[in-house]
Design brief:
This protein is mainly α and 37 residues long. The chain is 73% helix and 0% strand. The mean pLDDT is 76. It contains three helices and no strands.
């Protein structure tokens, strides 16, 4: 795999983990914060 593409995928993964956390991306898990409000 080309180095730039591998680095892009790693940055994308880190960004997603920061946004969504490291758990599964089930809809129930993503909506927990909104339901608490």
């Amino acid at each position: 795999m080309k180095k730039w593409f591998k680095e892009f995928i790693e940055r994308l993964g880190k960004s997603n983990e920061k946004t969504f956390g490291s758990g599964s991306l089930k809809c129930c898990d993503l909506n927990k914060e909104e339901k608490k409000k």
